[in-house]
Amino acid sequence: MALINFNLPKSRRFNYRPVYYDERKERLEEMKTRAKAELEAEKKESGYVGGLQRGFLTERRVNSKRGHLAFEKKSTLRFLIILLALLGIFYLWQPEIFMAFWRIK
To answer: SS3 letters for the chain?
Structure first.
């Protein structure tokens, strides 16, 4: 009976106290959770289901075309300005050849 020992030692408890406490980080996390909760509440109020909404793709396509047309107009204008500048530089550099090319007397 001496071989069985029922008096087992108790395990030591781990008591950890953080050395550094970042109050700013905790406030930031709290603000994030509050903002997420507000967004969720707003989505529920507006009836937003999630995913694509009706007319979203059409609106995006129209906006894309408008942007593309504006870019085309700007690039055409830029091309004409550069072309005129190059012709002016060529005229100042070689006026005889320029006049002969355009047959200007």
So the answer is: CCCCCCCCCCCCCCCCCCCCCCHHHHHHHHHHHHHHHHHHHHHHHHCCCCCCCCCHHHHHHHHHHHHHHHHHHHHHHHHHHHHHHHHHHHHHHCHHHHHHHHCCC
pLDDT in tens, 40-77: 888 777 766 556 666 667 777 777 766 666 667 777 88
Distances (CA, A) of 20 to 7, 17, 27, 98: 40, 9, 15, 78
Rg from Cα positions in the chain:
38
Tokens of 57: 């793709």
Label residue 12 by pLDDT band (50, 70, 90). confident
* Token representation of residue 92: 């100042």
